[in-house]
Amino acid sequence: MAGIQDLKGLAKAEKYYTDYGSRAKELRAQGKKVIGYISALGPVEILTAAGVVPFRLKGNVEEAITKGDAYMETIVCPFVRNVFDSAVKGKFDFIDGMVLPHQCDSLDRTGDIWRDYLNLSYFHFLNVPHVSDEPSIEFMKEILKLFISTLEDFTGNKITVDSLRTAISLHNENRRLMRSLYDLRKSNPPLITGSEMMKVLVAVMGLPVYESIELIKEIVEEVKSRKPLIHGQRKRIMLIGDQIDSTIITDTIENAGAYLVMDDISIGSKMYWQDVDEDKEPILALAERYLRKLKIPTTFVDTGGTYEENLNARFGHMRKYTEEFKIDGAILFIYKYCDPYGFEVPAIKSYIEAVGVDVLYLEDEYSTSSLARMKTRIEAFLEMIA
Amino acid sequence: MNRYFAGVDIGSTMTKVVIFSGRIEATIIGPTGPEHRKLANKVMEEALNLAQIRFEDLSYIIATGYGRINVPFADRQITEITCHAKGLHSLLPTVKTIVDIGGQDSKGIKIKDGKVVSFVMNDKCAAGTGRFIEIMADSIGVPLEDMGRISLTAEKAAPISSTCTVFAEHEIVNKLASGESIPNLIAGIHESVATRVSAMVKKLTIEQDVAVTGGGAKNIGLVKALEKKLGCSVIVPPEPLITGALGAAVLAKEIFEKYEREGQMPVRSSCGLQEAKIFS
Amino acid sequence: MAEEKKGRALATKAAASIPKFVRGNLAATIKAKEEGKKVAYAYIADGQDEIMRAMDIVPAWGESFAGVCAAKRDAEKYLQKAESDNFSRSLCTYATCTIGFDMIRAELGVDLVPDAPWGGMGRPDMILGSAQLLCDPRFKWPQATQHYLRDVPIFVGAMYYPPFDPKFDHHEQEKFYVKYCTEELRECVKFCEKHTGKKMDWDRLAEIVELSDKTWDLFIDTYELRKAIPTPMDTGDAMNTMVPLTFNLGTQEAYDFYKQLYDELQEKIKNKEGVADPEKYRLIWAAGLPSWFALGDFQYFNSKGATFPVEVTYRGCEKIERLELPKTNDPLEHIAWRWVRYWTHWYDKARKRPGSLPKVERIIEYIEEYKCDGVVFHSAFSCRSWHAGIIHQAETLKKVYKKIPILILEGDIVDISSYNEADTHNRIDAFIEAVDAYKSRMG
């Protein structure tokens, strides 16, 4: 790893993207504990408050699932299966434990499998509810307290109100900085490409929050002072989906002649929009942020009003993005076997099309095996909206 | 001075070239082998001969289809979706919905004034493509070119419930063994493909006129079954295989003329039509 | 010949009377309007049954209707309708079948959909969904339906239970889970009051809950009669006899049905009447929703001398005394305790046997009590909720118990295009041979 500390900004992000987990490994060797998590429901503030390195798990779209199939059915979410396969192949040997939030059936129904086959010294299933009414907020607080107690037992560190407040403040700053980087995508052309952005998003999700903060600061300075990279009229695209974490997709979009300028993906804007309220009691504030502010299809939202009001409550943020980032077309990239997103496709598609933005719906696996097929569709879509 | 343009459509089973000047000067259809580049050159040469022009007379060349990145002498690649729409529109301007059934994929395309407004594709599953009919024809020992005609003589199509090609084959073998008539089975096979294709196309709002293109369009049994499933009559253009290449050639002309109007030189490929080596 | 559905031979008269129940349930949703009652789309086993019954809300069970469509092999038109608006074919087919049905309802602008199997379902006045640990489609399917029926209000309640963790004593968490469930049920009542314009009659609710408790007990007492050798009733029938417990819980008809079944089974045991004659192998249906279009496969098993005296699927209850429920005067709290304790019933056993799982403990308990020689799982591709984790259950069973023969069948609940009869029968044949060898080895 000679030289990584000499790299700065985007070059550093590139290294952390290509060699995902390298920094977590280093920190572990220095005596820090690393706790892996999946999804945007990962309670990173609590992990930071406990003094561990929160490490968001990802798979490898270029690697075929082999060992994992012996334990986990093929009807499980392709992303979850791929990450599990990576874990079983030893790719995450440097983590001390895992917290698995109850995002969806694919995680909930495989919780036993993760626990029983990975033999981690720490495993906690965070039973996040799907509803966000008042009783659910109270319940979520209990769930978070339970998690805090097992984490305290494991790390030997007490998680105090103060340590939580500090962690919340740091993660909020992290989010604000990332949003300021996203702002640099608003120009035409954007100052940072979609693929560069993808590398940044992946790089920082494997770092402790204070290192993420420093890295994003460097990148913002670097990108701010750039001249626009590409010239000419190109369509501005927004990518919508859950965990999309490979530049292969972003490259495909941008090589077809478009700017990828915004996303609503779970390692992207879902992570970094909506801060935790620092004026409230920490556990309540966390419960509210993760249940009410975070926009994911696995949290049921209904205003009790009209259907239009419900659509705005569920997807209003996507329309806002199309305005703020001047979007010409959206790509809805959903994994096969995904009930939470799958059932929303007609509603999302028509909601975005209603504001004059064309939508391409792609159903795929978490894999590059069908890349040529995706390419043709993306290219045809861009030709269509040109 | 006559300007010439070319469209090269490298499909998974057939390679097509159209030379276009404002009207069609030549069309050639040849089988695609694994050596796309060599084939593209060969078919292009044949087309040029037929049109009695040289390669250098071509002002702009567009490649489309599955193998479009394997045409080094093409100036641009455009997807077959856009090219089919353009080609069909130039042949049949009243068409609003295109159903293309190829050997290994099928597509539905909505067009307005020759431009694509929405599209759907099935290129993952054999069940909605010509391949399904090919495999079943092989299974029951009937020549592929007779399948369509025989299906029309059926008393009643034998429904096949499996969409998985492997399972469907089993199902057909079982039905044969239980005494089901061959025409009924063949009608069932066509119905199966028509069902899958129409399920895909129904994701678009189907508006008439509806045209069917691709190899599937030459199968009268499939066309009739499709009409039944879609609930409307369809038009089959006189040469349903060349709409992609034609569209590519028409687009080549449009793009070139746009460059001209804007006073610019189009960016052209540096490759000429030389003998392509395999894997070059 | 090929397309005629083979007539299914049922072992019990009670099971043969079930289609009447199912038709009756569907008909009730259509008659509701003229009877001044509200119709609610509802989902099974989510703790909300008694609330609906107490408020005279007529439940319309999408899961039942989709099962009927599948059994009649008439689901494809609805699945394709859903597909036409970009619902993936890999999604829960109970949902896509019913959504397709509602898409047609909306498109035609009618209350009743023509040409629907057994008359179809009446138009809902509300949807009572459930975001519990049963499955995700239960709260996504309502939202997807609202896209087509935009005036239908949705309630989604959360009924959660503590997850299993061998290191945790779940009893410590029970209290706040029960509190949460109770409050969610209260929200359900509020929603129902708002949309029916009626107030909950709490005494009536308490009576209905008492009846459903008694029904749970009677169900188990009845099913435990199947321990007899030969077994008087097997899973082929149980996929029918589960209907009253699953769809009519809280009604006198449901209770009376199990009385009738109980008496019939008693009679059969007296006469030593078994499902298969001779009964050579006893199997457990250890997990998985069946292929509703291929229930005849149970008779195929029977033809080989194999019976299923016991199944886990649709045995969604336990004897109340075994659950050791704390006393409470609040019927909602009672439902909540019953809910949590049912789902955690096998946790203590699982913690005592290292490497085990609660679902596996349940399977072991039944294998021993019903004297089973083999285990069958069914993996339905569109249902993650019940079918992800089956491989793990099978492996764990082998690891912590014994090397009992296991068969994992693959298919789907509603989508027949995934099923191959010849292939399935071949696998059953091979499995029976393995069970036979196992029995000989065991002596």
Entry keywords:
heterotrimer; A: 386 residues; alpha/beta; Rossmann fold; four-stranded parallel beta sheet; globular; B: 280 residues; Nucleotidyltransferase, domain 5; 2 domains; five-stranded mixed beta sheet; 8 helices; 20% strand; elongated
Description:
Chain A has a domain at 24-162: Rossmann fold, CATH 3.40.50. Helices cover 49% and strands 12% of the residues of chain A. Chain A has 17 helices and eight strands. Chain A has helices at 9-18, 22-29, 44-49, 78-88, 105-108, 111-118, 134-155, 161-183, 194-204, 209-224, 247-255, 269-272, 282-293, 307-324, 339-342, 345-353, 371-385; strands at 34-37, 53-56, 97-101, 122-126, 235-241, 258-264, 329-335, 358-364. The longest helix of chain A is centred in the middle third of the chain and has 23 residues, at 161-183. The radius of gyration of chain A is 20 Å and the shape is globular. The relative contact order of chain A is 0.13. With 280 residues, chain B is α/β, with parallel strands linked by helices. Chain B has two domains: 4-84 and 242-261, ATPase, nucleotide binding domain (Nucleotidyltransferase, domain 5), CATH 3.30.420.40; 93-235, ATPase, nucleotide binding domain (Nucleotidyltransferase, domain 5), CATH 3.30.420. In chain B, the strands form two sheets. In chain B, strands 3-2-1-4-5 form a five-stranded mixed sheet. A five-stranded mixed sheet of chain B has the order 8-7-6-9-10. In chain B, α7 (220-230) links the parallel β9 (210-213) and β10. Mean pLDDT of chain B is 90; it is low at 276-280. With 443 residues, chain C is an alpha/beta fold. Chain C has one domain (13-442). Chain C has 20 helices and eight strands. Chain C has a four-stranded parallel sheet with strand order 2-1-3-4, sandwiched between helices. In chain C, α4 (62-71) packs across α6 (93-108), α6 (93-108) packs parallel to α7 and α17 crosses α19. The N and C termini of chain C lie far apart (43 Å). Chains in contact: A-B, A-C, B-C. At the A-C interface, α5, α6, α7, α14 and α15 of A face α7, β4, α8, α18 and α19 of C.
